[in-house]
Amino acid sequence: MNLSVSIKEKILKGHPFVLDKIRGTGALKAGASENTGFSQDDQLYRSIDNAKSELEMAVLTFNELTDEKAIDYASYNLLAARARYSYLLQLAKEKKLSL
């Protein structure tokens, strides 16, 4: 596995349909999530809910910190959470899902 995929896997928390899209295997096509018992749309909705929760937690953490180094970390964490949430919303928009 190359380094860029490894970093993306860590950022996207290992969601198989997202990782397969990154790799270009077409996981968002029908039937790609048979092993999980959930439809692809259900997985995407769950991922969006998780990403929204992580973003809200990142905002709360950032707002409560006063230590300069901790604020730096929290700001990077906040940016990453925002990017992940935006990306998942983009995937839902591409699939024309209602949120």
Structural class: mainly alpha
- How many strand units? 0
Mean pLDDT: 76
Major beta sheet summary: none
Helix content: 55-70%
Q: Between the first and last Cα atoms, what is the distance in angstroms?
A: 34 Å
- Rg, please? 15 Å
The helix/strand series, from N terminus to C terminus, equals: HHHH
Oligomer: single chain
**Global geometry:** elongated
**DSSP helical segment count:** 4
Strand content: under 5%
Low-confidence segments? 1-8, 25-33
In short, what is this structure?
This protein has 99 residues and is mainly α.
Would you mind describing this structure in some detail?
With 99 residues, the chain is mostly helical. The protein has a domain at 39-94. It has helices at residues 3-11, 16-23, 40-64, 68-94. It starts with a helix and ends in a 5-residue tail after the last helix.
Annotate the secondary structure layout.
Elements: H1 3-11, H2 16-23, H3 40-64, H4 68-94
Comma- or semicolon-separated keywords:
99 residues, mainly alpha
